[in-house]
Amino acid sequence: MTRVWILRLLIVGAIWVIISRLPEIEALGRTLAGAHWTYLLAAAILQFGFWVAHTLLYQTCFRAMGVSGRLRDLLPVMFSSIFISVVAPATGTALWVDDAVQRGQSGVKAAAATVLVRILYFSAFAVVLMVGLGWLYRYHDLTIYEKIASVLLLLVIVGWAAVLLMGQWFPSALRWLLSLVGMIGNWLASRVGRPGLIPPGWVENSAQELTQAASAVASHPAVLLPPAGAAVACEVIDLASFYALFLAFDHPVSLGVLVAGYAVGILFWIIAITPQGIGVVETTMPLALASLDVPMAKALTISLAFRGLGFWLPLLAGFILVHRVPSFRKWRHPAHTAASVAIVSLLTALMGIVNLLSGITPSLAARLHLIRADLPLEVRHGGHLAASMAGFALIMLARGLSRHKRIAWLLTLLVLGVSIVSHLVKGLDYEEATLAAALALWLLSLRGSFNAVSDPPSVTQGLIAVAAALVFTLAYGTLGLYLLDRHFSLNFGLAAALKQSLVMFTEFGEPSLQPITGFGRYFARSIYLVAALTFAYALVMLLRPVLMRRPATAAQRRRARDIVEAHGRSSLAHIALLPDKHYHFSTAGSVTPFAVRGATAVALGDPIGPPDDARDAIREFAEHCRRHDWQPAWFQVLPDYLDLYTQAGYQTLRIGHEAIVDVTTFSLAGGEAKGLRHTINRLTKLGYEAQVHSPPLSPRLIAQLREVSDDWLTSVHGTEKRFSLGWFDEEYLRDCPVMAIHDAAGIIMAFANLIPEYQLNEATIDLMRQRRETERGTMDLLFVRLFEYARDQGHATFNLGLSPLAGIGEAPGDPALERVLHYVFESIDRFYDFKGLYEFKSKFNPEWQPRFLIYPNAISLPTVWTALERAQSANGFAWAYLWRK
Q: How confident is the prediction for the chain on average, in pLDDT?
């Protein structure tokens, strides 16, 4: 978070500098405007070449140390390190090491390579510096600060070289020296009340890096040739860029003045105490050039131009590119990224409102006078309408940005470009254009945060809709103008009507089109209305969340089964393997079963896998959802990982309790079980008995079970449910043990199928069905025999499933939402027999364990619940399907 605040202060400070120095900046702008643009462009190209050569220096030093890397991958790191070294000084080099580690390379070797980069670059510059100082000594007096700065740089170079030689010849002395540095650093830190300045392990790591670098160079000196050549190329290209700026401002310069001025400027860039020499270089370089008989105005302009091309523009590039560097992502705080996206989305909507207001207000007369001669009325009029249309589009796109949509990011940049042009065209409204440009730059800097994809078929449909909207609107306008020309001041032939429609479409109106009737005015406006509606539909399709059109593959199901069998520990474990689920697999091997409805992905229970992977599995599933433009939710989770969900920023809601019966102690003896014991004895005397049917079940038995199931579905006026429970499917049921209650004639009156919980020594069931016409207490008999069967099989407990709303909202300290659900539990028995279900399970004296719903926030709860209802059934309210009846 410290880096985040430094970045914010840096941005605020930059804005303040720009505002406070606006007159000087305007004067500098006028000076730059008078330069030769060909030479300015050449200087800019050479500066880019300098940074490419500098990146090549890193690449060749990496290669010398055995670290690979492509130039195109290292170039963003180069610019990003400039930005990082300003925001957090002394960490720019660490970015190179972290990037190498992220690419699977050795961090120690990468660190050694960065040492070699410093030595070679400083050595190459030292040659230039010696030439410059020699010329100054010969033809001018050396100032005291130039002498001191030169000595400091030479000491740095000699020091690095000496340390490198010690790593090769005297490694023990190197460790002693580094230990001494560490002790002094920590002693100084303790004197000012700060914690240890030198982290643990720094001595050994640094000694290893330096020794390895020295050994690599000593064993193969030829490896220094490519990086040495790159270091020399850096200085030559930088000098050429500096020379091009002199030509751009019409000031001839000798080689001695060029080298001396350049050497002094770069010298203070290197040894300045401020990050990247900010403020120091801008002061010393103009003074150095002025002392060499360059006019102060030209010296200041050339210095600032050189500084702008060589530092400020690369700094801006680093600010934009730093989010693309993988190693920087671990430095970013997730909350900061989310907040940035939320803020930029809000600003986009506000920019849309600004566009709408600007589009309907007249332009300032003084500015309009400046462009009246160059731009015709049609174009200026079109600028107003273009700004308004862009504002409408920005308001619609803001929602897509808040969902991290990639295509929304692209379209917003495009619309902001249109907005900038339209504001300038309609009346030189540079304030609005500047706001739009600043917003576009911020969006560019957040590029990596917008990676949520849209539904591919919907994108195709949206692109088709865009083309269809264009064709339809042109056809609508053309035929309308041709057939209704009596309502306008002009008579249109077919070709003229088409041309007029194109003009309206591209220039957003033309004053020469004058309706003479009310219907004519209505039709002219309807053309824009039709275009807006069709393009809005296309935009909605382009921003649509990914739809899961295909089921999980056979390979995914096999992988999920292996993980569930190895780590499943709940009554939902087997339900997670049913074919209505999709699967997300974490890096460490956990699986999250889920279903997608609308823009919500509802996971069934907690991630299944190694317990120590739970945190990452939750985070990776949430990231998977974000990339697909879904909001995540978890249904019927256990209490075990509640802290992980809350730490990740999610809300929890207790939705009920599961009833767990201890079958090792369950008994029909005693006074409390008198009623249950009487029921079991009565049914036994009537000839009712329980029978376990082992898999695979025969077709004849499945047909009998289906008859019971259909009769039950008819009695409850319902259909099969999904997601958190199974449904009557012959293939699914065939492989499950089934306990059935047979009457005296052998007819099946009720049944339940047993499903495994794998690593938990517990039995549970899924389907529970009974006939409408059966003896009262048949389900009591079924459960008692199930408990006895589970105990005989060696299980410790039996899971009766979830009782929704039971036991929640009863305590005074319970959340308000849970108290509302408790009122529902007490009040709606006429619709859903929640209390009856709870009382039925209570007769078996179970232990009640809470289950929870995890959701993003209160605003998302209705959509999460709707998605859950849709996942479980096509009809009815979701609460009706939380329990297994």
A: 75
Q: Helical H runs in 255-312?
A: 255-271, 281-291, 296-307
Contact in structure between 135 and 252 (CB atoms under 8 Å) = no
Task: Return the closest-CA partner of residue 53 out of 226, 222, 312.
Answer: 226
Determine the Cα–Cα distance for residues 876 and 769; give it in Å rounded to an integer: 20
Question: Cα 420 to the chain's mean position, in Å?
Answer: 27
Contact partners, residue 281, CB within 8 Å, separation at least 6 = 265, 268, 269, 272, 303, 307, 311
Question: Please, what is the Cα angle at 35 between 34 and 38, to 5 degrees?
Answer: 135
Question: Residue range 364-382: average pLDDT?
Answer: 48
Bridge partners of 595, per DSSP, are 602
Task: Report d(CA 65, CA 99) in Å as an integer.
Answer: 15
Q: HEC profile for 655-700?
A: EEEEEEEECCCCCCCCCCCHHHHHHHHHHHHCCCEEEEECCCCCHH
Rounded to 5 degrees, φ, ψ at 735 are: -95, 10
| 340-366 burial: b if 16+ Cβ within 10 Å, else e | bbeebbebbbebbebbbebbeeebeee
Q: Which of 60, 62, 54 is nearest to 212 (CA)?
A: 62
For residues 868 and 602, is the Cβ–Cβ distance under 8 A? yes
Q: How far apart are CA 448 and CA 704, in angstroms?
A: 58
Specify whether the CB–CB gap between 757 and 764 falls below 8 A.
yes
Please give the C-alpha separations between residue 475 and each of 582, 640, 703, 737, in angstroms, as whole numbers: 45, 62, 61, 66
CB atoms under 10 Å from CB of 862, counted, come to 10
Q: Report CA torsion sign: 294, 300, 304, 305.
A: negative
The candidate with the shortest Cα–Cα distance to 657, out of 800, 544, 500, 526, is 800
Within 374-501, strands assigned E span none
Distance between CA atoms of 818 and 822, rounded to whole angstroms?
6
Q: How far apart are the C-alpha atoms of 31 and 566, rounded to whole Å? A: 73
- CA–CA gap between residue 675 and residue 844 (Å, rounded): 11
Contact 716, 694 (CB under 8 A): no
DSSP notation for 296-316: HHHHHHHHHHHHIIIIIHHHH
Contact (Cβ atoms closer than 8 angstroms) between residue 545 and residue 599: yes
In sequence order, which residues have a C-beta less than 8 Å from that of residue 317 and are 6 or more positions away?
Answer: 79, 82
CB 422 within 8 A of CB 387: yes
Query: What confidence tens digit (pLDDT) does each residue in 543-593 have?
Result: 666 666 678 889 999 999 999 999 998 889 999 999 889 999 999 989 999
What average pLDDT does this structure show over 646-663?
90
